[in-house]
Amino acid sequence: MNTTAFLAGLDCAVRQLLATVQTELEPLGLAQLNQQPAPNAWSVLECLEHLNRYSRYYNPQMARAVATPAGRPTAEVRHSWLGRKFIAMMAPGNTQKAKTLQRMNPGGIRLDGGAVLSEFYTHQHRLLELLAQAGAADLNRKAVPVEFLKLLKMRVGEAFEFVIVHQQRHVQQALRAKEAAQAPAATGPLLVAA
């Protein structure tokens, strides 16, 4: 795919994520933000904190990758087999559950809504800056170590796409948690007057 179109699509996706979180999730009260839809299911804030933990790792890795001079900018973005596999695993349309590493699992802790949201916004704005810089980088260079197995490296373009589809997946999960938090509590059986 053409680099300009690829980066523009990713930029648009990040901006859409930001708008969704600001309009759909930020207005919720702290109780709703922390309410788990089911036992062992993440709340809205747990979904966003999970993304913050990944951003703490991937944003600096991608910043190094786009700052390192490596020849000419990429004209066409290519994907490796590994990159396609990771992206497909995290794609929002993939309904298969994926296990997360313990250090990336925020489940079961009470989170501060303001702090989690503020950090999420900071990471997204940094990601937008990195996408703007990426047009001058070699996006096909294997330069971003995979978080859970650093011996494996994704291409720079793949890493951007992986991070963004991962975020889309968990923002959708957060929206489902919001719906569950706003659902009226189940009441007992309806009694019909005779």
TrEMBL record:
Domain DinB-like residues, every copy: 19-174
Annotated InterPro entries: DinB-like, DinB/YfiT-like
Gene3D superfamilies tied to this protein: dinb family like domain
Name assigned to this protein: DinB family protein
